[in-house]
Amino acid sequence: MIKYPMTVQGHRALEQEHEFLSKTERPRLSQAIGEARELGDLKENAEYHAAREEQGMVEARIRDIEGRLQNAVVIDVTTIPKTGKVIFGTTVEIANVETDERVKYKIVGEDEADIKGGKLSHGSPIARALIAKEEGDVVTVKTPGGVIEYEIVEVAHI
């Protein structure tokens, strides 16, 4: 059985998406299918087929979310003592050794990843290089553009 690590915020977001899909989208699509059915011949009824297709996608997503929530391992990093070590859920400030350009990333579960929002999946190359390292360590990350070295400036439990 696969376990899905996620932050408290990520777990809450999945619960909210599940509630929206179950309580808003599911009834809306059911109504749309009913209305399309009333239009007559189902073989050539584009509205009916579109609504059925969308319903299938929504139901698949609901099942996916339910499985992820059922197998979630929620990690609240704010309850873990700060050691300066990068772990799941920490926010890490890193500096490119060559350019001194700094960025901050939060290490999160795959459902929460959003590079533009500063959230890295724990399975990404940068996150894998950072996890278990400490403030002051220099890590080497292989990227499509070549090898980059980063220094871990700060690890925060926020």
UniProtKB/TrEMBL annotation:
PROSITE patterns: GREAB_1, GREAB_2. InterPro entries: GreA/GreB_C_sf, TF_GreA/GreB_CS, Tscrpt_elong_fac_GreA, Tscrpt_elong_fac_GreA/B, Tscrpt_elong_fac_GreA/B_C, Tscrpt_elong_fac_GreA/B_fam, Tscrpt_elong_fac_GreA/B_N, Tscrpt_elong_fac_GreA/B_N_sf. Residues 5-74 form the Transcription elongation factor GreA/GreB N-terminal domain. SUPFAM superfamilies: FKBP-like, GreA transcript cleavage protein, N-terminal domain. It holds the Pfam family GreA_GreB_N. GO terms for molecular function: DNA binding; RNA polymerase binding; translation elongation factor activity. Keywords: DNA-binding, Elongation factor, Protein biosynthesis, Transcription, Transcription regulation. Belongs to the GreA/GreB family. This is Transcription elongation factor GreA. The lineage of its organism: Bacteria, Pseudomonadati, Pseudomonadota, Gammaproteobacteria, Pseudomonadales. The gene is greA.
